[in-house]
């Protein structure tokens, strides 16, 4: 699956659309993410409507999820990775679409570096000296009334309190919106 964050970044860059107050960091996300530069406490999230589905993707620094960004050194570190992976596999601990749309999660994918309870088949366990590592999670929701989807609460702030901000983008059939979410204001309004 193509990364929604990369797709959203490509779309925003290709259309020249820039986010007021957020700058062009998200529009340049592909280059920034490929260079592995990231800010602790800050994550990226994208929301895309595709027919009757809501697609959500999160990319966040591993350090904000487990407290470190290197290979686990002991059993306690491995437990932290497994716990974070279990939490991320529960979509409700990351996002909660507005109830009016009748959305239910149909797919979940978590890519946790260095293993985790649901290890990705294409992951390579390596930690180049000085590099930063991101956790990636994606969710697909099937919605009975996608037109009624007016908001998504970002619950990951409660699950992982080290996260302080999320650069979020929404791509819908008729609108594109970007916002900076904070733990004190975690609701992304789509309308």
Percentage of residues assigned to helices: 10-25%
Helix run count: 5
Structural class designation: alpha+beta
* Unreliable stretches covering 5 or more consecutive residues: 9-37, 118-130
Radius of gyration, CA atoms, in whole angstroms: 16 Å
Order of helices and strands: HHEEHHEEEEHEEE
Overall geometry:
elongated
- For the biggest β-sheet, the strand order reads 4-5-2-1-7-8
Mean pLDDT: 80
Taken as a percent bin, the fraction of beta residues is 25-35%
Count of folded domains: 1
- Total beta strands: 9
Report, as a whole number of angstroms, the end-to-end distance.
27 Å
Largest sheet: 6 strands, mixed
Write the layout of secondary structure elements.
Blueprint: H1 4-15, H2 29-34, E1 42-50, E2 53-61, H3 62-66, H4 75-88, E3 95-97, E4 103-111, E5 134-143, E6 151-154, H5 156-159, E7 165-171, E8 176-182, E9 187-189
Parallel strand pairs: 1-7
Antiparallel strand pairs: 1-2, 2-5, 3-6, 4-5, 6-9, 7-8
